[in-house]
Amino acid sequence: MTRGTVGVMLATASAPVVWGSTYIVTTVALPEDSALWSGVLRALPAGLIALALARQLPRGSWWWKAGILGVLNIGAFFPLLFVAAYLLPGGVAAVFGATQPLFVAALALPLLREKPTAWRLVWGTVAVVGVALMVLGPDAALSVPGIVAGVFGTVSMAAGTVLSKRWGRPVGPLAYGAWLLTAGGLFGIPLALVIEGAPPALDAAALGGFAWLSLIGGLAAYVVWFHGVGRLPAGAVSFLPLISPLVAAILGWLVLGETLTSVQLLGFAIALVAVSAAQRVPSWARLRDLRALEVAPQRDRSDGTADREHDTTDKHRSGKVCHPQDAAEG
């Protein structure tokens, strides 16, 4: 990876690092039994603030695209995540989150024509094993509704990641994040009203918790995240959310005094290695890609325009042809 790619990767990884604080904030500050309202209060204020700052609304097809992406990445993902967490004690829900790279690989093939590499498929499987060792204990209970919520939540986020890559980003990350956070928050309001009733009363601790989750974990983190999604391969981005359960485990150990067994520490190390290794391209894979580039122009020379069309298509697929505002960001 180039120095610029490494910088984008590290910046994007800061989003799941912040998301890893959600568990500790929820535990010590937020009201109980308000999972759906928690999702709304996390997303909607951040989206409205971002809209006020960006002063850009969607145009044309981006009204429905922003709605779909907002539901997949936020509006549906948040409630399903909370439901799985409530119904699967022992952190079993994190195992489903760890399978996201495998779902992204499956969806990226038909939607992006991005073939999954054996390298990332192997490390995706290793990551599932590592996270499972961290969170699965002998007393872990399995709930069928919880499993369904965990699977659909993971598929929702994976589909949102791949479609975000396919459709690109027509505006800067602030406006883009504003559209999706607002759409996701609005989607959650009727669900919260029907299932949980009126919004919960908020004390000072809850207000502070929601301020952190909305402004830092919502607005700042998602702006950084959507910026990275547009510039990095979908397969590489899909591994970064695995950082969240690792951060959650560390914070639980530091703040709540939760103990980590030797097996959990082993799982922690395995998951961390998997996330790191998935971002690297082995030398044999780089050599294979270079050979493919050398052969492709020779095949295309039979048509005088083939080289130019092939080059333009590749740029669109890699996200390098973008909105002028993206180019201005560097």
What does it look like?
The structure is a single chain. The chain has helices at residues 3-19, 22-29, 35-54, 62-75, 77-87, 93-98, 100-112, 118-135, 144-167, 173-196, 204-229, 234-237, 243-255, 262-278, 283-300, 306-318, 324-329. It folds into two domains: 3-281, no CATH class; 293-330, no CATH class. It has 330 residues and is mostly helical. The protein is globular and about 45 Å long. The chain contains 17 helices and no strands.
Shape: globular
Run of helices and strands: HHHHHHHHHHHHHHHHH
N- and C-termini, Cα separation: 17 Å
How many strand units? 0
Count the DSSP helices.
17
- Rg, rounded, reads 21 Å
Number of structurally distinct domains: 2
What class, by secondary structure content? mainly alpha
- Provide the helix percentage: over 70%
Largest sheet: none
The residue ranges in which pLDDT falls below 50 over 5 or more consecutive positions are 295-330
Q: Which quaternary structure do these chains form?
A: single chain
Strand content: under 5%
Top keywords for this entry?
330 residues, mainly alpha, 2 domains, 17 helices, 76% helix, 0% strand
Describe the protein's topology.
Layout: H1 3-19, H2 22-29, H3 35-54, H4 62-75, H5 77-87, H6 93-98, H7 100-112, H8 118-135, H9 144-167, H10 173-196, H11 204-229, H12 234-237, H13 243-255, H14 262-278, H15 283-300, H16 306-318, H17 324-329
Helix pairs in contact: 1-11, 1-13, 2-11, 3-10, 3-11, 4-9, 4-10, 5-9, 7-8, 7-9, 8-14, 10-11
